[in-house]
Amino acid sequence: MLVKGIEHLARRGLELGYSSQDDEFRGIRGRVDLLSTQRRFLIEHGRAACHFDELTTDTLPNQILKACLKLLSADPNIDPVNRSAVLRITRELRGVKDVQITNRSFRCVQLNGNNRFYKFLLNVCELIYGGWLTSEEEGRYRFRSFLRDEKKMALVFQNFVYNFLKIERTDLTVFRENIQWKASSETDAKLSLLPTMRTDISINKVDRKLIIDTKYYIETLSEYFGSKKIHSENLYQLLSYLMNVAPENEKIEGILLYPTVDQDLRISYSILGMPVRIQTLNLSQPWEKIRNELIQLPN
To answer: Nearest 5°: phi and psi at 101?
Structure first.
């Protein structure tokens, strides 16, 4: 994905930015640095020290892309075909300097509205960089697949479902919301010590409200004394959302959504008078089927 994306950028032209430069010239370019010119006696030789801005592809976003490619090329576990593609596209970024990236590098990037595709690729780079581990050999790294990281994959899964519904179900109001506790306290009047309740996905429909809580586990169900059960903390969390957000005279429904692991689940309950669904999404099936399932999810 990263290689194909950078190839696309290269075809349409890499992002350009202005970089501050200092150099000596016979003549003047940009702003003359009088102090440096006098100290180095450049005027006697018909030269001047100049400070100027140069349009270049050596920008921070391009540096991050190249640095991430170089990290990948050094991993011995990368597929040979992918490694070859990574090395090839890295060589094509000739005007971009090699830099050492950190977590701060991603926070320093500033993109305008026309660079949305850059933002996507930089998100891919950040995901890859976050999975990098230092090996026991000095200066060597190895990549830890984020597919094995439940916390990161949970966030990817949550954002995938949210953005899909936001884009594809324009007939619905899809949003995230902070739910206020239906509580009071004489010792904590502002309820500041109660945990924040923020939904993964809230949907307003004509006839009811829907709250979807996405979860990602290597095992969809937990095991309790040899029997499979829904993760209790997931169900308690969803019920807490439903009980505290439910206004009077409005229907409300909750869904716990998991990716399919070993079995598909389509289970419905009525708990405290509120419909609750436990459902899985099979991400290994063809895209059209995934799309159809997600389109029908809020129905």
So the answer is: -90, 155
